[in-house]
């Protein structure tokens, strides 16, 4: 750890400012724990031009707007926000119970860390449609947008054929674009494709045509053909941001996701993982639930009261001046936040 960096001390540090990370930080802060959210900026949620499948949030809300409101809420409740990149992490000095996260601006020491570091979609080679205006990555988010519209699925693996088959539930015009790659799907999958109205186009994409509104209009191919599409999905896999989890010794799954329990707990005490870096559907509502469950689980682990019989035998009965257990700065902020109708 660098001796030149200041040290910030917290009960909980959340790494990653997407929906899962923000929700974990919200619960941790409101449940009375000194919490910091360390966010490098960007991320998949920030790129969303419209938010789908989130009750209470209108479609015209962008990902940036959603996350911006979340950060405002966190600050109102007393969570510290840091724009920083965590470069390394380990146990804090001689204290095996504390974790030290070294960023570019500070070292963050904490009792519990939540990894909400997500993943990056593997992008195909250009030429490509604009992301969100013809190029999409989330089937369950965006399939509804293409009801009765011509759609492509770009890729050459099993997942490509699987998604193409699913899209037949929404439209009768589905193409697979292998872009010159040899298909890697099984013989059974090839038979499935033969028995469904899905065209497999092997010629690579040579150009993109957009309409006046910026949406994809058509793709041009090296064989001289042009096909009209409203949009489609790229299926080239994911690169999980699991470096911090590896450094802390967390168990990983074969696909690179962090292995977690029902409440985001990893194989390492005090380390939790939530959202897209964990297994499951990559959906906003699921990310919110992941963050909430982790925040509540951390509260059970960190809260001071009621004290255990062992602690009471060692320290004696809890004195009036020791309660409430919420830190003074969060107590004052909570009192100011809630007027309860008082003058």
UniProtKB/TrEMBL annotation:
Keywords: Flavoprotein, Oxidoreductase
InterPro entries, per the entry: FAD/NAD-bd_sf, FAD/NAD-binding_dom, Ferredoxin-NADP_redctase_2
Matches recorded under Pfam families: Pyr_redox_2 (PF07992)
Domain of life per record: Archaea
Domain FAD/NAD(P)-binding as annotated: residue spans: 10-291
GO molecular function annotations of the record: oxidoreductase activity
Gene3D superfamilies per UniProt: FAD/NAD(P)-binding domain (3.50.50.60)
This protein's name: Thioredoxin reductase (NADPH)
Taxonomic placement: Archaea, Methanobacteriati, Methanobacteriota, Stenosarchaea group, Halobacteria
């Amino acid at each position: 750890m660098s001796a030149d960096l200041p040290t910030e001390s917290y009960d909980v540090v959340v790494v990653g400012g997407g929906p899962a990370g923000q929700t974990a930080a919200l619960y941790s802060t409101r449940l009375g724990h000194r919490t910091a959210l360390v966010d490098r900026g960007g991320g998949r949620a920030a790129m969303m031009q419209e938010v789908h499948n989130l009750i209470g949030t209108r479609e015209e809300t962008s990902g940036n707007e959603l996350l911006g409101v979340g950060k405002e809420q966190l600050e109102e409740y007393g969570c510290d926000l840091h724009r920083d990149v965590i470069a390394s992490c380990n146990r804090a000095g001689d204290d095996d119970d504390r974790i030290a996260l070294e960023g570019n601006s500070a070292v963050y020491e904490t009792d519990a860390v939540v990894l909400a570091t997500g993943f990056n979609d593997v992008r195909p080679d250009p030429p490509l449609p604009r992301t969100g205006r013809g190029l999409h990555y989330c089937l369950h988010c965006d399939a509804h947008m293409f009801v009765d519209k011509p759609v492509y699925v770009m890729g050459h693996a099993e997942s490509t054929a699987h998604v193409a088959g699913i899209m037949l539930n929404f439209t009768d015009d589905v193409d697979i674009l292998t872009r010159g790659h040899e298909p890697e799907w099984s013989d059974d999958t090839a038979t499935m494709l033969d028995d469904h109205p899905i065209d497999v186009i092997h010629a690579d994409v040579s150009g993109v045509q957009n309409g006046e509104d910026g949406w994809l209009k058509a793709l041009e191919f090296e064989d001289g053909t042009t096909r009209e599409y409203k949009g489609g999905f790229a299926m080239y896999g994911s690169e999980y941001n699991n470096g911090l989890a590896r450094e802390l010794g967390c168990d990983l799954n074969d696909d690179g996701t962090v292995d977690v329990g029902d409440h985001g707990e990893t194989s390492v005490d005090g380390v939790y993982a939530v959202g897209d870096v964990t297994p499951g559907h990559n959906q906003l509502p699921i990310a919110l639930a992941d963050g909430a469950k982790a925040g509540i689980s951390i509260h059970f682990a960190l809260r001071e009261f009621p004290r255990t019989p062992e602690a009471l035998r060692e320290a004696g009965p809890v004195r009036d001046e020791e309660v409430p257990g919420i830190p003074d700065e969060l107590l004052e902020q909570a009192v100011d936040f809630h007027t309860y109708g008082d003058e």
